Amino acid sequence: MPWPSRKRDKGAVSDKKEPDAKIAKTEEETPDKEEEEKSTKPPAGSSKSGWKNWKKTKESDTGGEESKITYCHWLLKSEPESRLEKGVDVKFSIDDLKAEPNQTTFWDGVRNYQARNFLRAMKLGQQAFFYHSNCKEPGIVGIVKIVKEAYPDHTQFDQKDPHYDSSSRKENPKWSMVDVQFVRMTKRFIPLSEIKAHYLAHKADGGPLKNMMLFTRQRLSIQPLTQEEFDFVLSLEEEKPH
User: Fold this and answer.
1) Among candidates 191, 195, 217, which has minimal Cα distance to 207?
2) What average pLDDT does this structure show over 163-185?
3) pTM attached to this predicted model
4) 140-167 b/e with 16+ CB inside 10 Å = b?
5) What is the pLDDT of residues 17-57, one digit of tens each?
6) Whole-angstrom Cα distance, residue 99 to residue 53?
7) φ and ψ of 154, to 5 deg
8) Span 69-235 CATH architecture
9) What are the extents of the domains in the chain?
10) Which residues have C-beta within 8 Å of that of residue 65, sequence separation ≥ 6?
């Protein structure tokens, strides 16, 4: 029997000091509707949000050479505290993931087109930070990996699910999900406030977090990370908290 769907898009993060729960908005309230019928691939390298820093690969064919961006790492937001949405508790912490069979589950409930496209760009074996959001102290608590690439999110067809979408059709589903598996806890909790301090410093001096989407597109529940961003944030687990 499937367990209740967990809403990830509520995990919007603000860089303000007040708790997320007071200011978070669902991604459904501000959907990027013009993205709906566009390519399922994430946007190309001209974005102001730092796309140009992401790794690029060259694919050659008889017609010439095409440059594509590869997404190596991710940040996934989920709510660790109970909250009812249409009568369903959308809580899902990293401890809940660890309690799942084989410490694996599907990442459902995403209802924003850009976040969906990021889901569809994920590749087997890629790692992501598990980020607790919409709570008193948001931040990174662990690492997961992608163990199944994007496939249709079944909750879009379930009328009893809070993420039901009556406009989606089984022959052409709008929404996708991936399967993730617990890898490990970070050696310590890495709070949003600490990451933000580094972001502000790097924004001034050109460090690796200068364009981190956690602050430039903070309301997205699925966010890509450059190799440099991932490595720098991971290095923080070795430091003593300030």
Assistant:
1) 195
2) 97
3) 0.76
4) bbbbbbbbeebeebbbbbeeebbbebee
5) 333 332 233 344 344 444 444 444 444 433 333 334 433 43
6) 36
7) -65, -20
8) Roll (3.10)
9) 69-235
10) 58, 59
